Amino acid sequence: MITKILSKIGLPFLVKFIGQALGSINNDQAKQASLLLGDVDTAIQQRQISVEELKEANRHMEKSAELEASVDEKTLNTIHQTIRKEMDAGDKFVRFWRPAFGYSMALAWLMNMFTVCYVIISENPDAAEIILSLAETTPLWGIALGVLGISVVKSTPEKTNGLNLKSLKK
Q1: What is the pLDDT of residues 16-28, one digit of tens each?
Q2: Between the N and C ends of the chain, which has fewer C-beta atoms within 10 Å?
Q3: Nearest to 37, CA basis, from 153, 51, 29
Q4: Domain limits of the chain?
């Protein structure tokens, strides 16, 4: 995603923007990075870094964005082929395992949340410890959602590329 932004706005703007943002952070490394980026910005403004070098850097960022987009497209195509094969299968289990698993996960999540609400409402003395223990279930939910093909870390290509699902069903 950052390469897409870089290829749109260019390196000089990015150097200045990130340098200013890092300068507002109360950390020695961030301040040092801000000063170094300020030096790069000065070098760009004083033409110590040539226009050709900046164009080459922008071209490299554009190429990186293209490569990233092609990887996303290949991944999306693979997922769609898998789902299409599941839907076309003659076996009911193959067609309906994903929705059944999704509904069972939703039911398990609801049971968890109702339990937490009950613990809070009933003023259980261990409520804080019980709520904090939910953090231990994070890998469980991450794996379960991953089985369903839902990424909990990265935004889906439909959101980043502005695609609608109707165009993907063709």
Answers
A1: 778 888 888 888 8
A2: C
A3: 29
A4: 1-88, 90-170
